[in-house]
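Long-time lurker, first post. I've been practising inverse folding by hand and with some scripts of my own, and I keep getting stuck on stretches where the structure tokens seem ambiguous. Below is the full token string for one chain I'm working on. Before anyone asks, I'm not after the true native sequence, just a reasonable design that respects the backbone. If someone could post their per-position residues I'd love to compare against what I wrote down in my notebook.
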């Protein structure tokens, strides 16, 4: 695979910044949903409480996924600053524009990511 062109690098950097802004907005939006569930059992009912607790757990899981991805985006942005963006952290080969366009925060090429997920499960 070829190294990224300057235009591709600029486009992917813009994608990373937009993704970071989106993830931070999502974090703000899910913070209230992931908070403590306070329901008046007599006024709301048992089913509504179960629904609220389930929604809370879903929001917490979304927050964890978003925070992990946000950290990956920050690492990728630092790699841009360091001139190392687009290099697979496992094998060192270029990751490839199409892969980075789909997941601009990706730390590994498809081949290495498949192997990592086979060994450790998906991230």
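-- Answer (accepted) --
I ran through it position by position. Result:
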């Amino acid at each position: 695979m070829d190294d990224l062109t300057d235009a591709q690098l600029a486009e992917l950097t813009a994608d990373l910044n937009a993704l970071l802004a989106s993830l931070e907005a999502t974090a703000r939006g899910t913070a209230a949903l992931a908070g403590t569930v306070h329901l008046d059992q007599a006024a709301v009912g048992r089913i509504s409480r179960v629904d609220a607790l389930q929604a809370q757990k879903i929001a917490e899981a979304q927050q964890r996924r978003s925070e992990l991805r946000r950290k990956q985006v920050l690492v990728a942005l630092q790699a841009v600053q360091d001139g190392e963006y687009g290099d697979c952290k496992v094998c060192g080969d270029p990751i490839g524009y199409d892969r980075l366009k789909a997941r601009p925060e990706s730390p590994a090429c498809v081949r290495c990511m498949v192997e990592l997920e086979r060994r450790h499960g998906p991230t």
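A couple of notes from the structure itself: The domain at 6-120 is CATH 1.20.120.910 (Four Helix Bundle (Hemerythrin (Met), subunit A)). The longest helix spans residues 46-82. Happy to go over any region you disagree with.
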